[in-house]
Design brief:
Structural class: alpha+beta
Distance between the termini: 42 Å
Domain Fe2OG dioxygenase: 193-293
Number of strands: 15
GO molecular function, one term: oxidoreductase activity
Number of domains: 1
Shape: globular
Strand order of the largest sheet: 2-3-11-8-13-6-5-4
Number of helices: 10
CATH topology: Jelly Rolls
Family: Belongs to the iron/ascorbate-dependent oxidoreductase family.
Organism: Nelumbo nucifera (Sacred lotus)
Protein name: Protein DMR6-LIKE OXYGENASE 2-like
Helix content: 25-40%
CATH superfamily: B-lactam Antibiotic, Isopenicillin N Synthase, Chain
Length: 344
């Protein structure tokens, strides 16, 4: 099928095609609030890496509280140059503006192809499509990159290396917050060979945004997702049964916990449901970097977090198998995680 950008460029749209209309989009039962009504946790990354012992103890506690209560937080003072973040957004925008025949070189056929671009989420099984084009690139343990635009490889290599460093240090803090050794997650899930995926999302203006959906409510596979977006907002996070509309602080990253944090923590920390809404004025671009376990790691609850009152809540599954399961089906809430949940 055609990508959304091609659809938008091909004619002047006044309404969206019927196969993009979501009957379960924003409706009267949805409660959407702003950040002014909900205080989203902010984590000062510099205190985690360079703070005094007292400051680090407090920030680890704050990190644990954010994972427990939200599954989502904002990371400030992360040390990545703003020039690199801007360059990464620009080079991804340049990719989506390539001619369609150039992008078709990267239309992967398998969900685990290391470079794959497309539209919606899994257009081969969907009847209703999302107002979104994407590029997915495996960047670790082996680095891949499209050859066009020419600057993509160099910029994405540096950007992904730095986000991986941020994610691994955050995971050390999360490990400590669970009462585990700081290196527990790193060693148990073989993060030296962790799978890291860069996903660039392109949401062009939509003539009927109230009928369309950029991405439906879902949780992410993996451990942490580090999100960067341009100045156009569209991310909503579910918190206490309500959708919170999120705008990033200047120079910050948005971070959410994934399904494999929920599994490893034996359900103490939950992966967070989130969705992307669209607008009719401007294109939104977001870059999600997912850090997961090693593809060959079998993820189970940490034994230290199990006891007679807390039996294992999830059965083990190799990360590669989990990823194939999620990416091969329709995206639907936490349905993939439910497949490995132990039924009481």
């Amino acid at each position: 099928m055609s990508c959304v950008k091609e659809l938008c460029d091909s004619r002047t749209l006044t309404s969206i095609p019927s196969n993009y209309v979501f009957s379960t989009n924003l409706n009267d039962q949805d409660v959407v609030v702003t950040e002014a009504e909900e205080v989203i946790p902010a984590i000062d990354f510099s205190l985690l890496t360079c703070g005094t012992p007292e400051q680090r103890t407090k920030i680890v506690r704050d990190l644990g509280k954010a994972c427990l209560e939200w599954g989502f937080f904002v990371v400030i003072n992360h040390g990545m140059p703003e020039s690199l973040r801007k360059a990464m957004l620009e080079v991804c925008q340049d990719f989506f503006h390539l001619a369609e025949e150039e992008k078709r070189e990267y239309m992967g056929k398998q969900v685990l192809d290391p470079i794959r671009c497309g539209t919606s989420f899994n257009a081969t099984v969907e009847k209703i499509f999302f107002w979104r084009d994407f590029l997915k690139v495996f960047v670790h343990p082996r680095f891949h990159s499209p050859q066009k635009p020419p600057a993509f490889s160099e910029i994405s290599w540096e950007y992904c290396k730095r986000t991986r460093e941020v994610a691994r240090l955050l995971l050390r803090g999360i490990s400590e917050s669970l009462g585990l050794e700081d290196c527990y997650i790193d060693k148990a899930l073989q993060l030296d060979s962790s799978l890291q995926i860069l996903t660039a999302n392109f949401y062009p203006p939509c003539p009927q945004p109230e009928l369309a959906m950029g991405m439906p409510p879902h949780s992410d596979h993996g451990l942490l997702t580090i999100l960067l977006q341009n100045d156009i907002s569209g991310l909503q996070v579910q918190h206490k049964g309500r959708w919170v509309h999120v705008n990033a602080l200047p120079n910050s990253f948005l971070v959410n916990t994934g399904d494999h944090i929920e599994i490893l923590s034996n359900g103490k920390y939950k992966s967070v449901l989130h969705r992307a809404v669209v607008n009719k004025e401007a294109t939104r671009i977001s870059l999600a970097v997912v850090l997961g376990p090693s593809m060959e790691a079998t993820v189970t609850p940490a034994p230290e977090l199990e006891d007679s009152h807390n039996p294992p809540k999830f059965r083990g599954m190799k990360y590669k198998e989990y990823l194939e399961l999620q990416q091969s089906n329709q995206l639907n809430g936490k349905s993939c995680l439910d497949r490995v949940r132990v039924q009481c």
